[in-house]
Each structure stands twice: as C-alpha cells, then as structure tokens.
Design brief:
2 copies of one chain form a homodimer. Chain A is of the alpha+beta class. The first copy, chain A, is built from 15 helices and 36 strands. Helix content of chain A is 23%, strand content 29%. Chains A, B: GO terms for molecular function: carbohydrate binding; hydrolase activity, hydrolyzing O-glycosyl compounds.
Chain lengths: 672, 672
C-alpha cells in the first residue's frame, strides 16, 4: 500500500483524502465504484417522464493498482482479474480536487461512485429541489422534467394528476444538477449531463449513479459555507443582475390585451400599488385548450391584443412602467414562422428526417435545435429583434425540459446526453441576446429550467409552476427549498409566481393564499404576480379592494427595501452568495438550523418565516441565537422557538438588531 | 458447436430444444442467464411488503463449453474469461425436461434465466393471480403477502389504502408460484421458494429472476391443455376432494354465538334456503379493533358464544347441517396457550432468542414454527383435538403469508427462503391432521395462502379478501382470474366469499353485489357467504326478504347441480383438471378465448359469464363456437358476442347442447 504525503491529497490504505477529508474509501463491504451496462426505456408524456433501466450488467470494482506522484494519484480498478476503470486524482491551480474517471474497456454506460459519508452529515443542492432541502435519507433521480402537480404520492392532487402521468414526485424538477454541498464543508460538482441518480440513503456513503462516464468530478472545501459559495460560483459562474427598474415595485402578470391591462393597471395604481412592470405572457396571442388559456407560440406581438405594442411600451415607460413578455424554445406548427424554419432545418428531427413534433396538449411544436449554430443564431435573433427591439425589457424564458430522447439533432449528439443540458443552451441563447443587445443593464429574463451553467447564463430563476394551494411539496412553502437549493449551488436570485399557477384537480386559489404569497414575495428579489392557468376561476388581486390595498402595502415595503436588496444582490454578484440563505449559512453552530426549510434569511440580516397554512393569526418561528427585532412590532426576540402574532397582513419577519440596515428596517416596520 | 441428435433434446447452435420446442437460445443481444449479488431490503407492515434489492453485481453469461451425451446436455457459462454457472439438461423417466443450474463459484444469490418466447405467445399461472390472467406484457414479483385493498394504483381505494401501506398492486397475492403454462403447450415449474420475479414483458423471451439458485426447472409438453393439466398435477399432486355434505347447499358465514346463529339459520330455512353448513369464524371468540371485529386467536371453542359446542354441533348435524370453524398458524400473545407454547420453543424467534411478535393490527401474535417438528405436531394436534374432535367438519385455514424475513427459525433456515414456502407447510399441517383423523371423507378446509405443493396439500382454495365492490382488480370479477390461474397450475377447486369481505375506504357492500356474487357462486365448487370485516355496516342477506328468496333459489340451483358438479370434481381428482376452466382450455382454436378472463367454463359443459357491474339488465357475453343453450330461457346460441338478458336473478349461464348433462341443465333452467 503506497502512502503519498502530499500537501492536499493523500492515499492511505485504499482511502483518498483531500485536505484531511476522506472522500473515497474502499472497504470489504463497500467498493468505491461500479460499472454497468444498461438500456434506458424513457417515455415522455407532456414533459413528464417514465424512466426505467434495463440493467444487463453491473460489476463492483476493487483497487488493483495505485500510482502516486506529486499531487497526482491514479487508482486502477478491476473485477475478477481484469481492469476496467482508472480514477485519477489531481489538485488544480485553484486547489480544487479533480477526479477523472477513464474507462479501460469500452462498452460500459453506467457508473456508480461512492463518496465517503458521515452518519450525521447533511447534503444540499442537486439543482432546484422543492420537497427536501436536506437531501440525506433519499435518492434523487436527476432528469429535467415538469415538476409535477402535487409531487407527493400520498396526496389526492398527485393521485388525480397521475391519471394523466402528471403527478410528479418529491424529486421531479425543471432544474436537476449534479452538484451538492455537504456539511463536511465541501462541494462536489460533477461534469455530466446524463441521467443520474444521487443516492443519499446510506449512512456510510453517498452513491452517485451516472448513465455514462462523467468528464470529471470537482471538489473544493472552505471553512465557512459563505466562502464555499464564493468558491462554487467562481467555478460555475455568476450572473446575479437585476435592472434597477425592478426596484420600483411589483411586476404585474396580466393578460387580455392593452385595453384590459391598462384598466387593471389604473385600478391598482389608484390604490397606490407600486408597479415596476406589466408582464403580459400573451403578448404573442393565445389559444384556448382544456388546460386553460394557452399562449400562441410564435414570438411576435399580437396586433389584435396589443396593437402598436412598441409605441404603447414607450408610453408605459414614460409612466415609469416596463413591459415584459414571454418566450420559449419551441414553435407551434401552425405558427407563421414554422414552415420557413422547418425548411432551414432549425428544428430537431425524427429518425425519418421530418420535424419532430412534441405534443404540448392540444397543439404541437417543433423544438428549436440549439446544436445547429444557424438555428441558435436565428432564435437569438428573435429575442433581439422581436422582443428587445420591440421595447420589451424583461421576459419569462419558459420551458426547456421537453427534449425527447428519440430526436435526431443537428450535431448528432445523443439526446439522452443532451436532455439535461438543453436548459442551459436555452439560457445561453437568452444570455447572448442580452449581451449583444448592448442594453444588458436594462434587461432581465427569468427561467424555470436549468442545468449546470445556469449560474452563469441565467440571472434570475423562478420556482416554476406551483399548485394554487398550501401543500408542502407543491404549494406556497415549496418555493423556499426551491430557492435555498438552487441558491446553495450558485443560482443567487430566485422568485415565484405570487399566488401560484396550477389550478387543476380541484385546487382553486383563495384570496388568502394570494395575500400570504405576496407578503413572502416582498422579501425576495422580485415581486411578480400571475393570473394562473385558469384566471377566470381563480382569485385575482384586482377583483378585491382589500387584497389590492394589502398588495399596495407590500409593494411599498418591497420598494423601501431597495437599498438593502441592492446590497444583497451585490453580494450575489460579487461573492456568489444566494439572496435567500438557509439559516445554517449564517449560523453554522446551530444544529437545528440545518433542518429548517420553511424559513430563510434574505441576505444576512432579515429572517423570513412565511405563513404557509390558511386561517392563522399566529405562527411558530424558529430563531437562531442572535438579537432579533420583530419587524412589524419592533419587539425584541432572542434565539429559540417563538409563537408570534401573524395575522393576515403580517408575515413573520425579523431583522438582526445589529444590522447595518437596522434603521431602514425599523422605518419599514413602523410605516406599514 | 456440437450437435446432439436425441429423441427429445437437441442442442444446436447455442439453442436447446425439447420436443422441437426451442426453450433456451443464446443470441448476441440476449444471453440465457445472468448471475448477480444483491442484498434484500424487506419491510413488512401487516402482511404488506415493501421490497427493494440493493444489487451490487450483475453479469451476463455466455456459453463457454457444451457437453453432450444421450439425453443429457451440459452448458458451461461464463463472463469475461471465467466460468460461473453450469446448466444441465436431462430427460427424466416421465419424459420431462429437467434443467439443473449449478454455481461453479460461490457467493452469487441472484439468477436470471431467459426462456425463448414467441411474440404472440401467452402465459398463465404464476400462482393465484387476480388482475391479469394472461401474464404476457407484465412482470410478476412472486412473494406471498396480503393481496392488497384496491390492487390498482389508479383507483381511489388503492390510493387511500396506500396511506397505510395496504393498497397492493396488480401482482400482490396470497399465493405466488414459480409455475406457468404457455400457449406453446408447455408448462414450466421451478423448484424454488425464494423471492422471484417472472418478467413476461419482452417479445422474445421470458425472464425468470430468482433470489437464489433454484434446485431445478421442470418442463413438460402435451398436445392439449387438458393433457397438460393432467401432466402438471401428476408432478405437483392432486387433492380435489369435497365431502358430499357440501352438496347440500350454502355454507353460511355467521357469527355472534349459538343463539344468533340459530335464529338466522331458522329465518333462512323458513325461506327454503338450502344450507350445507354454518361457518362461524368466531367460534373461538372475538376482540374488537378499529379494523372491525377480529377473531381471538386461541383455537378452542368460546364457551360464552358457543356453549357446549360439541353437543350443539351434533344437534345441527342431525338437522343435516355441518359446523365449520376457523384457524390460522399464529397464537395471540394474550391467549391461554401462548405462554406454554413459547416456553417450549414452538414459536419463531427474534435474534435475541425471544418470541418474535407480529403486529396484526392492535394485537400481537407468535408465529408457530413449522420447522420445529414438535411445534408442527403440537399444532396438528390442535386441529385434530380442538377442531375435528370437537365435531367441526370444515374450517378456514387462514393466513400463512406473514412470515417476517428477520425471524430465527428452529432449523435455522433463511426466512427469506422460507417465506414463500410457509403456506405449504401450513397446508401440510392441516392435511396430515385430516389424514390422521381417519375421517378424511367427511372433512374439508380451505386456504387462501399457497405455494408449490398446495396442489397436493390443499383440497380447496378461496380467493382471499375481495373489497366489497365491483372493481376489476379487487372486486367480484377478480375471483375469476383467481380461480383460472390457480386452477391452471393444478389447484383444481376454488371459491370465494359471497359478497366480498373488505369494507374499508368507503366501500360498502350493496344488496345487488351480494346477489350477483351468489349467482356466480352457485356455479363454482362451493357456495359460502361471509358477513365481511364490518358486518353491521354492510349488507347481510338475512336482513332482506328479497335477497333471502334469491339466495334460496340459487342454493337450489347449486344443489340440483350436484351430479354435474360431482363429475367435475371427479375430473379434478383423477385427471387434475380445474373445476373452472379458461375458455381456451376447451376451445383451443379460438384466438379470442385466450384473452377472456371474465368468463369461465364450469367443467366442460357450462359457460358462466358473471355480471360484474351494478344496474345491468343485459350483459355482453362471448361464446366460443359451439351449440349453446341459455340456461334460463332455453334459447339456442352459437359462437360470437351476444347481448343477453341478465336481470338481477339471472346470471348469464349457457350449457353445451350436446352435453351429457343437457337434461339436468334443462330442468334446472326451467325450475328456477
């Protein structure tokens, strides 16, 4: 057994340690790697996937050879007398550990790697995870998809949605990523976009499964989670950037054409609602389906609904209000631009060379093939010319998860390998459009789909489609683990649809849900409302004076928070910190903080505990050990679990007494 | 490549054929065997199991050597240069093919074998299967358990039951068996009781997975399914035997003590209901739980409910009515006999040497350890002395599926290997008690749990607990595939609880359900009613005069059918034919018949098409090509799909015009 004494990397008795952290350890009972051969069986139904593996072969590998040099270790692993895999460990110039697996024999398409774990260790990340923030004790298939409606096999909503393959599960997400952060103070980022499954169920190891062989795994360590966030974003990229107009108030999600939008804007303004923008996802027109109003996917202004839109946008801007639109990376096959684009080969194809049409529920679309450079440029051009040049200064860049696994792509990549990457190609298209427009400081876009690289290419996430209810896995409170998990892996800015989106299977948005959601949103990077998928059947703020007044109050709170929020965004931009921190990120010694996923810190100085059940006049809040001030009452609190008054209109929020912004907070609390 | 020209067994180009039937064929894309190593994770919750495999290793094996002798072929199989498994093929003295797998290297506990299949082939059996009769297109885990409540993940009942781990699925069954019959006119019986999974999803092969290495696989062929049934039962055993008193009418399931039972018996007799027996499952006393009335598991007559039971039984017998009881292979830990039995080591133990207590829902039981010869004799003695000697001439021998996988058994067998076998040890205990009593011709017992060997040790099955509803997977009609599948693998006699049993999750038995069920039961080997798990909340026949009269009619039909039914039972006893045949067993050339699982032939001459939905006055019936006579009307029908009148009271039944029993049928039809 070779012992290598290196500054950072040690191999001792089948154990690889990095900065005193044992990461790989072969024992009799537990190998560090397995290889396998399988055939994936993947069915897609409107962005929901049924995935099975036909596993033919799986072999456990044991170390047969060890080569050690300065900051460089290579393990050779074999099974029953033959060598199959080498693992190379090196330290790069940034002092990170790079682990590179190399097949020694071809034909293997499944790899399992086991990282050493401690029984009390917790892990976070793996993309945007809506059910569990601490991932330990569960396994997480990583495959970009619809997140599901209900997302919990024990709820009736999920059961009903599952009749249409749409229920989802605790792990389904628009944004899976093979990256996680451990309470052992390291992060692990795997360069791989294949289907994967991160299994954190075992006390002694984390088992990472890949349908393919990753390029490499990258590890880094830091004494604090704050520094770890900075290191992680140094690797993955940072793009936290919001134009200052977003500070002006709420982005109102409205539809129905200029006339209607104006009427509603005026009504809300009459109640002093602070409005930053009007977001009209139907700017390009609509179609009706059984799901509800669907947008017409051909990305140009609809002259009937929004006549002379560019002029109208200028008028709104003079009023201090921006206009936001919508786009996604598909084109409806009855859209005007479809035929020409198809003829130029801009869409992903079927085996027979025709356009692959994806069923989105009563209409079909071509998938813009981002592996085709011309298609990529063409679609970037659409964003630049049909959105940005038209005066649109923000948009929802929706979807990205629906790449079927049997398409034929321009560059002949395996769609199984491209599926999880697709969102980041889509993000990059938006990113370049913004960069090339020359107006980057005025523009913003937000995405739900993501992948490794979103940290760089997506300035703002939104938590996707929640059900318009109070459920843990798919309602209001699920937006918190969503923000915390995407944030801890480097996506600093996230927000959500105020009031949720999906009204199906008996779920209907209540006034109270909207109001509680708005209260929470004021303490996130962006306030934005959504009429939902069935506007006429769900509560809309503009229908109710009390709700409008409540919204006015909270948009003012949001506006007054600008200086603080800008500081938070700056930390995100420069240090890669998330805007919404898990409690433990600040209070590392607080054991309980590691289990909290229904509260967050907005920046370092505000603790937000959203009320996530109806009919509450008080709420139980956990405060880490510090000196806190209850925002609305000014009352002091110390650490511990407290029942605080929380009537509708008063979301439990606390600021740190010694915050540099204490005066600002005190004024905000007093003025509501 | 060796070519062996044998009379029966041929090896040619990696293909083993038996009587011109290719059974094993190695191709590039498809090996005939895989070995693996896994660790089972099995949780039991009241007889419902959650089973996962932690599969560490799986290797595909290819043929490395072939040895051929007279009627004897041995294939050696290996992976990557090493040999792991040999498969020996021989023809035995009965002209059966025996395939014996032998490990060449220790430490493998997973075996997959692939049998060659034809794309249009269908397969049946695999124990008692309640959802699918033709098994092709699905896979079937084989593990004895509660069958589930709902048994279909798309039904609300199942969803609700799953909140308590109790929903089950299409494959969950009290009686799994590694035996099936193919439309290629062969059967395959595997000598193995381990957890298995029979996967019939692939067009080109059947993949049989075992958690262990079976002793052997046995195949036989025959030109007709009737002859195949005879051959299969020649191998497995036959025990079709019902005392003649069962012909006297219905066995009434009643509870509540002698007084109540007598009152109800008298009431029904006043309406001329023909009664063969009184089945009082509470003869040993009851306890109340949230599930409903539960029986008190200490197998002796309860003096308060049934005082002087032996004398009372004699009185009933003089009236021509037998008394039936109930027993299962557990003892409640608050039962009188528990302590002494525990002290003698009669119960399965925990790792620490204490009695392993199984939770049955608000009470706990010891598991009688049948691997302990003294315990086996002791419990047999209970049946002989406390049931048979007491005058009981029939009983429900319930349960058998709940052997936990972490018990310690007297003979130190691995409970993982004993779990599926346990029902047949339980059956054998009953069987020997009956044989040793000297009164075998007067006695009968019926079981729901089963295993390979039930064919020999269990004279009569019942289809377990149905929900009191019309559902496909767990209601009235599920008793048909149950009878057909258990029948085709050699369990000739089956029946069901008239009206079903489980009233939970909103399911309540209706009068109509009871009546339709009784109509069906008259054309099965036994009519027996059950009050269900919640008698007070569910329809009982004795509450309603119309239902009583309807039952009287049908018990008379049953009684009048005696000569025919006896002939059917004789065929079962002598030729191993099931009493309830699938249509294709008689009509081999009828392609559609192979897909019918909601009709059956009772013997060769009666076709029964139960009405399995409420509110029907007519019913669609498929008749194979023959000359049929509608029983009630005397109208002639030929083959095809017909809509026939089927008002409540007239289950669609047809007899073959040229039946030797045509006159009897004609009289029965006319006299109702």
């Amino acid at each position: 057994m070779t012992i290598a004494q290196q500054q950072h990397l040690i191999l001792s008795r089948h154990e690889v340690s990095y900065h005193d952290l044992t990461l790989f350890k072969q024992t009799d009972g537990s190998p560090i790697a397995f290889l396998g051969r399988g055939t994936a069986a993947i069915d897609m139904y409107r962005g929901n996937f049924d995935i099975k593996d036909n596993l033919q072969t799986k072999i456990p590998l044991t170390i047969t050879d060890e080569q050690v040099a300065e900051d460089d270790i290579t393990l050779t692993l074999g099974f029953d007398g033959r060598d199959y895999l080498s693992l190379n460990f090196t330290i790069d110039s940034h002092d990170r550990l790079q682990v590179t697996p190399t097949l020694l024999i071809d034909g293997w398409n499944r790899l399992w790697l086991r990282l050493t774990a401690q029984s009390d260790e917790k892990v976070y990340g793996a993309g945007e995870q809506l059910s569990y923030f601490n991932l330990r004790g569960h396994h997480f298939p990583l495959w970009s998809s619809e997140p599901g409606i209900g997302r919990n096999k024990h709820t009736l909503t999920t059961f009903q949605a599952d009749q249409n393959h749409a229920g989802g599960d605790y792990y389904t997400t628009n944004y899976p990523e093979a990256t996680f952060v451990s309470t052992q103070h390291y992060f692990c980022h795997v360069e791989s976009y294949t289907y994967a499954d991160f299994d954190f169920q075992n006390d002694d190891y984390h088992e990472l499964q890949f349908w393919g062989v990753p390029t490499k795994l990258v590890f880094d360590q830091a004494p604090t989670y704050l520094e770890l966030a900075t290191k992680l974003t140094a690797l993955m990229g940072r793009n936290a950037n919001l134009p200052t107009w977003t500070d002006n108030g709420i982005i109102l999600g409205l539809q129905g054409g200029t006339q209607r939008v104006n009427d509603l804007k005026n009504k809300l303004q009459a109640h002093d609602v602070q409005i930053a923008g009007l977001w009209c996802q139907d700017w390009e027109g609509i179609r009706m389906t059984s799901f509800g109003k669907r947008l017409f996917w051909d990305w140009r202004a609809d002259e009937r609904l929004y006549p002379h839109l560019t002029d109208q946008i200028q008028a709104w801007q003079q009023d201090g209000i921006q206009f936001l639109g919508y786009i996604n990376p598909y084109i409806a096959n009855d859209a005007e631009s479809f035929q020409a684009a198809a003829a130029k080969g801009y869409f992903a194809q079927t085996q027979d060379g025709g356009v692959y049409l994806v069923d989105f529920g009563e209409f079909h679309c071509g998938v813009v093939d981002f592996t085709n450079p011309d298609a990529f440029e063409w679609f970037k051009g659409i964003i630049k010319h049909q959105l940005i040049d038209a005066g649109i200064t923000g948009w929802m860049a929706d979807f990205g998860e629906y790449l079927p696994t049997d398409v034929v792509l321009y560059d002949h990549s395996d769609p199984l390998m491209m599926h999880n990457k697709w969102p980041v190609l889509w993000a990059q298209c938006n990113y370049e459009a913004v960069q090339e427009s020359g107006k980057a400081d005025q523009l913003m876009y937000f995405m739900r789909a993501g992948a490794a690289g979103s940290q760089k290419y997506t300035p703002l996430l939104w938590a996707g489609d929640q059900s318009v209810n109070w459920s843990q896995d798919d309602g209001l409170i699920s937006t918190v683990p969503a923000a915390l998990s995407s944030g801890i892996i480097g996506n600093s800015l996230s927000h959500s649809d105020i009031g949720g989106y999906t009204s199906l299977y008996g779920n209907v948005r209540s006034k109270e849900l909207f109001m509680r959601w708005a209260e929470m949103a004021a303490f996130t990077p962006i306030m934005r409302s959504h009429e939902g998928n069935r506007p006429d059947q769900n509560f809309q703020v503009y229908e109710d004076d009390e709700a409008i007044d409540h919204l006015a109050q909270y948009t003012k709170v949001f506006k007054r928070l600008t200086a603080y929020r800008r500081a938070v965004i700056a930390e995100a931009a420069h240090r890669g910190l998330p805007a919404q921190w898990p409690l433990f990120m600040h209070y590392e010694d607080d054991a309980h903080a590691y289990d909290v996923q229904d509260e967050f810190l907005f920046g370092s100085d505000l603790l937000v505990a959203p009320v996530s059940q109806p009919n509450q006049t008080s709420w139980s809040v956990y405060l880490p050990d510090d000196q806190w001030v209850h925002l609305w009452s000014g009352r002091p609190y110390t650490g511990g679990t407290h029942t605080v008054p929380a009537p509708l209109g008063e979301i439990p929020v606390f600021y740190r007494k010694d915050s540099a912004f204490a005066d600002l907070f005190q004024q905000i609390g007093a003025s509501k």
